[in-house]
Specification:
Blueprint (H helix, E strand, L loop, with lengths): L6 H4 L4 H12 L4 E4 L1 H7 L8 E4 L3 H10 L3 E3 L8 E6 L2 E7 L1 E6 L4 E5 L3 H6 L9 E3 L4 E2 L4 H6 L9 H7 L3 H12 L8 H10 L8 H12 L4 H10 L14 H11 L6 H6 L5 H11 L3 H13 L13 H9 L5 H11 L3 H9 L9 H6 L5 H17 L6 H10 L1
Parallel strand pairs: 2-5
Antiparallel strand pairs: 1-2, 1-8, 3-4, 4-5, 6-7, 8-9
Helix pairs in contact: 7-9, 8-10, 11-12, 14-15, 15-17, 20-21
Length: 405
C-alpha cells in the first residue's frame, strides 16, 4: 500500500482537523479524505476544499458532535448524508458512505453503507474515486492513482451506467480531461461511444448546472479539441451551443487567447456567428446579464473595432471608450483585445487612464456663452477637437479654439 507523506498533506492537520479526527477515533468510526482533494494531494496540489467520508451515519455524527459541544452548521445536505461541523474557525463537511438506490439522471436517492468499495463505485471518474486515510494510506479501488500518473480520464466501471446516473457527468468528463490529460484525442473509444449514445440526457439537466461545467471547460486545456468533440458527439445542441458553430474561428481564437486569462464568455463567443446565438445560449443556460452583454458586444464589434494604422494603434479603442455612455466599457474592450489576440495592446490599454475632459459649461458661461443649447453644442464641438488631438489639448488650448469656432 502507498502512504502519502507530502507537505501539502501534512499542512491539512490544523487544530480543527486534529480535534475532529480524535472524536471519530474515540467512537471507532472511520474517517477519510475523499474525492477531489485526494486527487489534488496526489498531484502535489494543495486542495481548495476538502470533503471527508465516514462510516458513521448522520444521526451518529450529530449525537457525537452535540455531546462534545461542537457547533453544527445547518446545511441542507443531511438527507444526502452530509453533516457540517465547525471547529476552530474551520468548517468540516463529512458525508456518510452511501449507495445510490434510485437515480433519474439528475438526482439520486441514497442509502447509507459502511462499505468503502461500494461508495467508490458510485463516483464518476477513477481519479475522483480514491480515499486517503488520515495516516496517509491510499485506498484506491479502481486504479485511480495509475490513471492520474498516466493522465488518463476514465469512468468508474461502465461509462454508460455512470452517465445515466447523472448526465452532467458527460461535461465533467470533458472538464477533467482538459485539466489532467496531456494531449488532445487520448480517449477510449467506448467512452466516446457511451457519451454519444447518452448525449440527449443533457437536455434534462438545468442550464445553471451546465453553465458551471462549461465555463471550467472553456478555461481549461485542449478546449478547441473538446468543443469540436461536443459537436461530433451530438452534445452541442442540448447545451445551448449553435447548431452550426464556427469551429474554425473557435480554434483560431482559443490559440491566440491562451495566456491572456479571458472570461469564459469571451472564449465561447468565437463560436457564434451572430447575436441570435448569444440569445439562444442565454435561454438555455440563463447566463448572467454581464455575460450576455459581453457576448453581444464582442459579436457586434469584433470585426470593425480593430487596431488603427500608423503610430497610434490604440486610438480606435480609446475613441470608442471615450464616446461610450455605458458602464464597464473598458472591461469589455479588454476582452475584445484578448479575443483579437492583441497582447501588447491589451497591456497598453490596461495601463491607459481615461483622461477627463478639461472644459465645463461653467468655463463657457465665463466666456459669455449663455444659452443652454449653445453651451451643449459648443461642448460637443470642443470634445471633437479634443478627441482629434488624442486627448492632449488642455483647457487654454480648447478655449482659444472656441474663439476660432
Amino acid at each position: 500500500t502507498m502512504r502519502l507523506q507530502a507537505p501539502q498533506f501534512q499542512a491539512l492537520f490544523t487544530p480543527g482537523l486534529r480535534s475532529v479526527a480524535e472524536l471519530f477515533e474515540k467512537k471507532n468510526y472511520e474517517l477519510r479524505i475523499a474525492g477531489g482533494a485526494v486527487r489534488d494531494l496526489l498531484s502535489g496540489v494543495t486542495p481548495q476544499d476538502i470533503d471527508f467520508a465516514t462510516t458513521a451515519t448522520p444521526a451518529e455524527m450529530k449525537e457525537m458532535f452535540t455531546a462534545a459541544g461542537v457547533r453544527l452548521i445547518n446545511n441542507k445536505g443531511e438527507k444526502h448524508g452530509t453533516i457540517t461541523a465547525r471547529l476552530h474557525e474551520q468548517n468540516f463537511e463529512i458525508t456518510t458512505l452511501r449507495i445510490d438506490v434510485v437515480t433519474d439522471g439528475r438526482h439520486a436517492e441514497v442509502e447509507f453503507t459502511t462499505d468503502w468499495h461500494k461508495d467508490a463505485e458510485r463516483r464518476d471518474l477513477t481519479v475522483n474515486s480514491m480515499f486517503l486515510g488520515l495516516d496517509g494510506t491510499l485506498y484506491d479501488f479502481f486504479n485511480g492513482y495509475e490513471d492520474l500518473k498516466n493522465k488518463k480520464i476514465r469512468f468508474v466501471g461502465k461509462a454508460a451506467e455512470r452517465i445515466q446516473e447523472d448526465y452532467l457527468r458527460i461535461l465533467r468528463y470533458f472538464r477533467f480531461y482538459g485539466r489532467i490529460a496531456e494531449k488532445p484525442g487520448d480517449h477510449e473509444p467506448n467512452t466516446l461511444q457511451a457519451i454519444k449514445e447518452n448525449a440527449k440526457g443533457l437536455a434534462g439537466i438545468s442550464g445553471e448546472r451546465i453553465w458551471v461545467e462549461l465555463k471550467k471547460i472553456l478555461l481549461g486545456n485542449h478546449v478547441s479539441h473538446l468543443v469540436q468533440l461536443m459537436y461530433e458527439l451530438d452534445i452541442a445542441q442540448y447545451i445551448g451551443l449553435p447548431l452550426n458553430g464556427n469551429l474554425e474561428e473557435f480554434a483560431r481564437v482559443t490559440k491566440n487567447i491562451q495566456n491572456l486569462s479571458p472570461k469564459p464568455m469571451t472564449v465561447l463567443t468565437s463560436l457564434f456567428k451572430g447575436k441570435d446565438d448569444v440569445t439562444n445560449l442565454d435561454l438555455r443556460l440563463k447566463i448572467s446579464k454581464e455575460e450576455k452583454n459581453l457576448g453581444l458586444f464582442l459579436v457586434k464589434h469584433r470585426q470593425e473595432l480593430t487596431k488603427g494604422p500608423g503610430p497610434e494603434p490604440l486610438r480606435p479603442y480609446q475613441d470608442f471608450l471615450m464616446d461610450s455612455r455605458e458602464a464597464n466599457t473598458n472591461s469589455k474592450i479588454f476582452e475584445l483585445l484578448k479575443y483579437q489576440g492583441e497582447e501588447e495592446l491589451l497591456k497598453e490599454m490596461q495601463e491607459w487612464t481615461v483622461p477627463s475632459f478639461p472644459v465645463s459649461g461653467h468655463d463657457l458661461r465665463k466666456m459669455g456663452v449663455s444659452s443652454g443649447k449653445e453651451i451643449g453644442t459648443a461642448l460637443q464641438q470642443l470634445r471633437e477637437e479634443w478627441k482629434k488631438s488624442g486627448y492632449h489639448m488642455d483647457k487654454e488650448e480648447l478655449l482659444s479654439c472656441l474663439k476660432k469656432l
